[in-house]
Fold these 2 entries.
Entry 1:
Amino acid sequence: MDSLKLMVYGFLRGVRDSFAGFVLIFRYDADAPKKPRASPVQETNLAKRRAAQQAEKKQKQASQKDETKVTHRILQCCVLNGAVFGLSLVIFNYILLPGLKQVLGLFLDEGAGAVWQYVRPTLTAVFNMLWVLPLFVLSRIINTIWFQDIADSAYRQRQGRPQLISSISKLVADVLISIFIQLLFLIQANLVMLLPLVGIGVILSGVHMCMLNALYAFEYRWFNMGWELYKRLSFIEENWPYFMGFGLPLAIITMYPSSVYTSGCLFALLFPVFIISANEADPVLNPNGYQMQLFSVVVGVSNRIIQTLVTRRPPQTPGKTPQPSPYHSAATRPARH
């Protein structure tokens, strides 16, 4: 019973922590440490000697970009995803289309309904092809860059300098396999929704999306901490009650719209806040040690695909031994802690 209470507590803490970013978002830049101003009394010979060092340091910093501000990037995300992308969908679906329908009704009277059955899908297809789809793809690329800027700036302000994976080959393999596993897990979430059991498929798919959204948000922080992929997946599976609660609000918001464009717009608009929440969160550990191995299937599939691709390499020349693939070590799951 105590274990069950702690699991429920971890789930509720996850839900609460997911909303913390809406409060903390405005404190980041305000709480950023400011350099103290030197008083006239402190203008000593020592300060003068340091002036030369500071001038050289400023010269190096001048060639680098200024550190991205958290609130500035989030405002840019709001403008792109809300004011540009989201507002265009609202105007087209709730202002332009109803207005055109009324105009057709004035001119065609009884035949307006039959004509509208052909006009509406045609206009919708043209709008989606010429505006929504290109803007959706462009916004996803820009959002990926901005999300990384937000996560890095937030981590530097609160946690310090990021500790990335030391090996370049491991880092590249980690990123590529992480994206591949997330794609497979998203496919798995859609497949379980097709189970012929009333309500069960939707619930299982919702659980998958909760875990995936939590992984999305925390992965920036864990990556800056130097955690490799197997450690990130193992930690989120072992402490699933907290992460399921953390990913629940975003999963509900993005699963409700029927349009993939509307769902993607809402995700891109709100996700920066959840990055802030994850950066500040203190996950509640699961007391019973039961590990929900939702990622085991996709990890096994990815390992099998990678091993198949590696074994299909061209034959080695005599005298050369094949080198082990860096992808294998990054994708292989370790034993439970």
Entry 2:
Amino acid sequence: MESIRAVFFKPDPQVQVRKCNQLIRQNTRKLDRDIAQLKVVENKARTSIIQANRRAQRNPSQAKQAAQETRIFARELIRIRKQSTRLVTSKAQLNSVSMQVTEAFAVRKIEGSIRSSVGIMKDVNSLVRLPELMGTMRELSQELVKAGIIEEMVGDSLPDELEDEEEEAETEVDKVLGEILQDRMGKVGVTPSTPAPVQEQPVAEEEDEEDAEAMLDQMRGRLEALKS
């Protein structure tokens, strides 16, 4: 029935703008949730770096292993921050799309016609490639095509500009470690020197290593879940 009506009647502008706004709000809420989750993972990565550094100070025999762990967690932290930055940028683009869509429908109401927007097309092209929003952004692009705000569907052959997974430069890792560990030292005034337990058994050391590995796996799992 809807397809028959679409042949003989133009889409209702009020229905179209409500649908577009609904999809934009849905995507905005999704981005807000993902940004908040990344903040939690980032804090866990910072804590893991501090704990590994503390363990190295308490147990010289674990210094090498702990140093490796701090660098692994620092690389994960760099990836988390880059992904978070990408999502914040995407949210700004989505807000821009929302304002431009509202303006386009307002012009249509006044002038009786609507003009396609290159700006909206550019932002939608970028957002539709974001894994976190791909499905709903395609639906939004369809609604914008129907309304005449963009001229064509977003294609699948656009270049992939998402974050690569290559190893970060060692200088960037050093910068992150310096930021976190020096910031912590500044807050307490001196380098932590918490005395080691009276009986530091090898079993406890093994458990610390297992906890670090489990924490790293958990952070990577959350990152992959956010990307999927």
